[in-house]
């Protein structure tokens, strides 16, 4: 865990909250996709989100990111409404597809949110790191001038992560960002993401279908159940950081994974 979080939590008694959901429900017409979700995500935390297909994992991220409204209940981000938080660039989204502009180089894609902000004349937060340093942080130094079609899928996803970090978000929402990648690339990016989390202190909400990925990354795993989508259990992963890939071969890791598999079967 980034050291700042521990210090701040100790000083105030309870950690500041990055995202808060209180009895939040989402409906699509008469269909209830999420029902009465209540949850506080501590500032600086890394939560992974698991659950059966269609249980509302993506819907939950879309709710938090102001893409869809709550039918009932409240959602706040660092004490602001989701709309205020979106306008203040408090959060950034990384999707399964990197969605880079094909005619712009890697560094130009990373710069894009800053350019859009400038064109709209809005004051937006800017990362302490330059776009080039952000590409370095995601392991892409030397590839600044490459076009998306010249990069592998994993590299494109790293550009998308650097782009997400350029407005210095306090909350990073990641919807299966590594789901389409081969296992070795995914392992590598998992390690890199933990490094980014520890260096920046950003809060992360990360949706995955992979139990090992959920255990490896998260301090807590949110297990959602389906029909309707709801919070089934919050599972604490008490494995120390920094985490190395070989952690996956330990009995503690296997125990967490087995527990989550059992839970998933009953969701
Ligand atoms: N725009 C929409 N209109 C109607 N129904 C929707 C809409 N978006 C999502 N749903 C429904 O809401 C439910 C939750 O969808 P969501 O995509 O959040 O699930 P998920 O857990 O992310 O699924 P998966 O693991 O398969 O990606 C599903 O039944 C889906 O069909």
Automatic annotation (TrEMBL):
Domain ABC transporter: from-to ranges: 19-247
What the entry lists under InterPro entries is as follows:
AAA+_ATPase, ABC_transporter-like_ATP-bd, ABC_transporter-like_CS, ABC_transporter_ATP-bind, P-loop_NTPase
Q: Which GO terms describe its molecular function?
A: ATP binding
- Tell me the domain of life: Bacteria
**UniProt KW keywords:** ATP-binding, Nucleotide-binding, Transport
The UniProt family comment states:
Belongs to the ABC transporter superfamily.
- What is this protein called in UniProt? ABC transporter ATP-binding protein
UniProt source species: Hoeflea poritis
């Amino acid at each position: 865990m980034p050291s700042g979080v521990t210090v701040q939590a100790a000083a105030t008694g309870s950690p500041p909250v990055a995202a808060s959901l209180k009895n939040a429900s989402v409906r699509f017409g008469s269909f209830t996709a999420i029902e009465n979700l209540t949850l506080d995500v501590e500032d600086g935390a890394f939560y992974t989100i698991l659950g059966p297909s269609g249980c509302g994992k993506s819907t939950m991220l879309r709710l938090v990111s102001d893409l869809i409204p709550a039918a009932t209940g409240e959602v706040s981000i660092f004490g602001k409404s989701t709309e205020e938080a979106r306008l203040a660039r408090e959060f950034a989204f990384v999707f399964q597809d990197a969605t880079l502009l094909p005619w712009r180089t890697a560094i130009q894609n990373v710069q894009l949110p800053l350019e859009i902000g400038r064109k709209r004349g809005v004051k937006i937060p800017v990362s302490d790191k330059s776009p080039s340093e952000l590409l370095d942080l995601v392991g892409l130094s030397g590839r600044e001038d490459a076009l998306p079609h010249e990069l592998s899928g994993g590299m494109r996803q790293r550009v998308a992560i650097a782009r997400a970090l350029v407005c210095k978000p306090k909350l990073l929402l990641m919807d299966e960002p590594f789901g389409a990648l081969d296992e070795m690339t995914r392992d590598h990016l998992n390690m890199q993401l933990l490094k980014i989390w520890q260096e920046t202190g950003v809060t992360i909400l990360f949706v995955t279908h992979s139990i090992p990925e959920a255990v490896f990354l998260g301090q807590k795993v949110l297990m959602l159940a389906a029909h309707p989508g709801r919070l089934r259990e919050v599972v604490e992963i008490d494995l120390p950081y920094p985490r190395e890939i070989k952690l996956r071969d330990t009995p503690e890791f296997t125990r967490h994974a087995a527990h989550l598999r059992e839970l998933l079967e009953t969701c």
